[in-house]
Design brief:
The chain has two domains: 67 residues, 2-Layer Sandwich (Alpha-Beta Plaits); 55 residues, Alpha-Beta Plaits. The model has no long low-confidence stretch (mean pLDDT 90). It is elongated. The strands form three sheets. It has a four-stranded antiparallel β-sheet, with helices on one face. Helix content is 23%, strand content 28%. The chain is of the alpha+beta class and 128 residues long. It has four helices and eight strands.
């Protein structure tokens, strides 16, 4: 399951992610990171059996945690199945099915938003 983590500025040098990994024993994969001097935001993939424990440990460290149930919204009525999203997606979220229609494998999504920006018909959007 994917979690959105928002780190506050104070204590930005504290290795919160490393601490949570050690405390929970969870193998956490960082899918996307945006960190600067003011704040930090990560999208992480956490094994489903550890997600509640990981979320609680991050909250105890002052990190805002949101479970991301859906990462991308796809408006199938606007989509013309042109494949622009297939060619640009770095993780292979999109593919053609045997009838040349777009299929999504949302679990692969890292919310990079590249597909959203390239879709000529605005059939894709990030979900908040």
């Amino acid at each position: 399951m994917k979690l959105l983590l928002r780190f506050p500025r104070p204590g930005h040098k504290t290795p919160r992610t490393a601490e949570v990994i050690l405390e929970t024993g969870a193998k956490i994969n960082i899918d996307k990171a945006n960190v600067d001097a003011v704040s930090g935001e990560l999208i992480v993939d956490v094994p489903s059996d550890k997600v509640d424990s990981v979320a609680e440990h991050f909250r105890e460290k002052g990190v805002e945690v949101r479970k991301l149930m859906k990462l991308i919204a796809w408006d199938e009525e606007r989509c013309i199945h042109c494949g622009a999203c297939i060619s640009i997606c770095p993780t292979g979220v999109f593919k053609f099915d045997p009838s040349w229609q777009i299929e999504l494998d949302e679990e692969k999504c890292i919310r990079c938003e590249v597909c959203v920006n390239v879709c000529p018909f605005r059939a894709l959007a990030c979900v908040d």
